[in-house]
Amino acid sequence: MNETNLNFNGLGIAPGLLDVISRLKFVTPTPIQHKAIPIGIEGKDIIGIAQTGTGKTLAFGIPMIQRLAQKQDAMGLILVPTRELAFQVDETIRKLTPVFKMRSIVLVGGQKMGPQISGLRNRPHVIIATPGRLYDHLGRNTAKLNTVNMLVLDEADRMLDMGFLPQIEKIMKYVPKDRQTMLFSATMPEGIVKIVTSYMKLPVRTEIAPPGTAPELITQEIFVVKSENKQKTLKEILKKYTGSVLLFTRTKRGAAKINRFLRDAGFSSAEIHSDRSMGQRKEALQGFKSGRFRILAATDIAARGIDVTGIELVVNYDIPDDPENYVHRIGRTGRAGLKGHAVSLATPDQGDDVKAIEKIIKTAIPLAAYPDLPVEKFIRSSPAFSSSRRRRGRFVKFIR
């Protein structure tokens, strides 16, 4: 990005929308915004490959609002993987729409159908939906997509991971073929290639960082601990950091268990996972945003919609089953140009799991230990792994 393009001027944005952006104090576009906005405003299909926390919502939101304002009776459709992400996208879209008198609606599961049906009757200009709930409305004939002229697939890789491809393919049958499609994803799995070839017209691909690349402003370290010492290690970690903490577990039960432990230990915390009601999840997320809860314990699926600036620390209390989820997790800190830190707790038998993560992020994660806690080592599962770990022995450090 050169010196003449350090603001939103010159990206093809209409003056009225530039005024809105200025009032919202958005000054410098992120790399994905700088690349995607002009292409989107031209009406071209886009494949945007970028990590979480890179400003993708404005990258598609600004072109969508501008193009909808230029066409009468046109509609925008944004598909997202989770309820939390749907509400966060809607929050951003609503900041752009008042001057244009546009209405948006969120269609997600876990909420009553009645209010959503009433909202659809008011002919919203933008629908933000999870694929499952939108397809429910289509089956009931309570949603019409025949005027959609701009479709966005946000966090497309996560939607495929969650098994939404069949619903997406069915939804596509209800959307006019003569439309603009913008797809955003952190990675390009085979399922996305299928969507691109089947439903997009000569898309322009713009990639901000190679898939799996860890954000540059995030420092990382890993503790090797036995399962029974995880809670004790976590308490020591939380003494060292004073800011907000997003903590990941593999399971819903694990998130609930660690939340109980944190509260019993005197920390302000909440949990967010699919066993919680929509109201409980919204309360936990809003409490985390406002600072009422310092720590939020979450599973991967629920955390996909957490877009909170200023998270100081990400804790991988459990190493993720899918190594690519590690990149998504730690990307929740170090956003908007701020520095962040990520700490992982691995058990001695998870050396191969850590090795798989390091292969994706193309770097070794420094080992760390506390002097008052037992120092464990990874179980050597193969000669190659053993030599690799010995070479990384220089990264072991003690935090005081």
Structure report:
It contains 16 helices and 15 strands. Helix 3 packs across helix 4 and helix 14 (323-330) crosses helix 15 (351-361). The chain is globular. Helix content is 40%, strand content 17%.
Properties at a glance:
seven-stranded parallel β-sheet; disordered C terminus; alpha/beta; eight-stranded parallel β-sheet; about 400 residues; Rossmann fold; about 15% strand; 15 strands
Give a short overview:
It is built from 16 helices and 15 strands. It has helices at 15-23, 31-41, 56-69, 83-96, 113-121, 131-140, 156-161, 165-172, 190-199, 230-240, 252-264, 278-290, 300-303, 323-330, 351-361, 383-391; strands at residues 46-49, 75-79, 104-107, 126-129, 148-153, 180-185, 204-207, 218-224, 245-248, 269-272, 295-298, 313-316, 340-346, 367-369, 397-398.
Which helices and strands, and how do they pair?
Blueprint: H1 15-23, H2 31-41, E1 46-49, H3 56-69, E2 75-79, H4 83-96, E3 104-107, H5 113-121, E4 126-129, H6 131-140, E5 148-153, H7 156-161, H8 165-172, E6 180-185, H9 190-199, E7 204-207, E8 218-224, H10 230-240, E9 245-248, H11 252-264, E10 269-272, H12 278-290, E11 295-298, H13 300-303, E12 313-316, H14 323-330, E13 340-346, H15 351-361, E14 367-369, H16 383-391, E15 397-398
Helix pairs in contact: 2-3, 3-4, 6-8, 14-15
- CATH topology label of the largest domain: Rossmann fold
- CATH class bucket of the largest domain: Alpha Beta
| Structure annotation, total helices | 16
Largest sheet descriptor: 8 strands, parallel
Strand content: 15-25%
How far from one another are the termini? 41 Å
What fraction, in percent, of the residue positions are helical?
40-55%
What is the radius of gyration computed over CA atoms, rounded to a whole number of angstroms? 22 Å
Low-confidence stretches: 382-400
Task: Return the average pLDDT rounded to an integer.
Answer: 87
CATH superfamily of the largest domain: P-loop containing nucleotide triphosphate hydrolases
Estimate nothing, just give the exact number of structural domains. Answer: 2
